[in-house]
Amino acid sequence: MAATTDADLAQRVLRGIGVSAGSVSGPAVVIGLPPQVPADEPASTDVDADWARISDALGGVAENLEKKAATIGGPAADILSATALMARDPTLGKGIRAGLAAGRGPVNAVHAAVEDVCTMFTAAGGYLAERTTDLRDVASRVIARLLGVPEPSVPELSVPSVLIAHDLAPADTAGLSPVTTLAIGRRPADARTPAHPWPTDPVLYEVSSSHEEGGERAYLASTVAFVGGDGDDAGHVRQLRLAVTEYLPDGRRVPTAGTERDVPADLVLVCLGFTGPETADLCAQLPVTLTDRGLVARDEAFATSVPGVFVAGDAGRGQSLVVWAIAEGRAAAAAVDAYLTGDTELPVPVTSTTATLRP
Length: 359
Ligand SMILES: Cc1cc2nc3c(=O)[nH]c(=O)nc-3n(C[C@H](O)[C@H](O)[C@H](O)COP(=O)(O)OP(=O)(O)OC[C@H]3O[C@@H](n4cnc5c(N)ncnc54)[C@H](O)[C@@H]3O)c2cc1C
Known about the structure:
3 domains; binds flavin-adenine dinucleotide; Enzyme I, Chain A, domain 2; FAD/NAD(P)-binding domain
């Protein structure tokens, strides 16, 4: 096969369904198609010998899945262990032997027995119907062994890569690095709590379609450092150093000393909401008082603790909306007018304490 040049790659457009969120770049790794079931396979002439080969292949596939399960741990390990159990299922073995005895070749006997079980699982529906993908994956791996070709699986990846596959079985995806979403705060409640009574907009644990695609969501995770690589890898983020978030009595969130741990990271997307105005430079030059939340403190008429200095919008109210910033800006202008002239005819649409429904 001729070497693929950058120019070739630049012209090749592959279409398919993306299975993970976002856009990434990396070397393309193409996963082979499952082995074909030969239509002209000779019938078994020695059922015991063929069964021994198939039994070895089933055992080898189960063993590999169990080894992988032991390495990765967590919920993905359960998927792999369950798939290994299917490879060791005596009912499946019985069906394969029956196929051999009925004159099928080894590959066709495996294929037919697995399809019979898949038909049963599909009819049963629910959890069992969902397991047909795992079962067909076991069949592909066993058939590859019988044919002496490589199993259709994800190879060891040394760098983050883009996988291109006809289909990826759970056993393939189980070992892949998941997207990890870190949140500095606590996990939101599943249902409205007394802290967010009706008709306020409650903060709830939400599961979007992106979350359903997989990945991990870690809470109380404070990022304290980006850890880079060494040598040629220098300058590239390779790990995030996290600590468990501690809530201080005044509501501030700080990393808990001594709880640091590193998690692998190749790509970090920073999605921070409003965490208060940046006040370091401001306070150095203008010693305004701040609130417990780190906002610029103000009275009813938007005046800060420094005479002649007013604050409106997010810096005083906290994260809000453009309409509030505009209304506060107009009201603050009236307050400034009154401060300078002793009176004002300007409109005051809101005060600094007019509340929104959201707490
Ligand atoms: C990602 C995102 C999406 C949003 N989407 C919406 C939306 O769809 N609808 C909606 O209504 N609201 C939305 N908001 C909220 C809205 O943007 C804010 O509520 C609004 O912009 C607040 O206006 P503001 O004038 O108080 O502050 P800002 O708009 O933040 O203006 C403050 C200005 O002060 C400047 N500044 C800071 N420090 C200094 C300094 N030392 N010297 C000089 N200048 C300084 C800043 O550069 C900035 O231009 C969104 C906010 C974010 C972050």
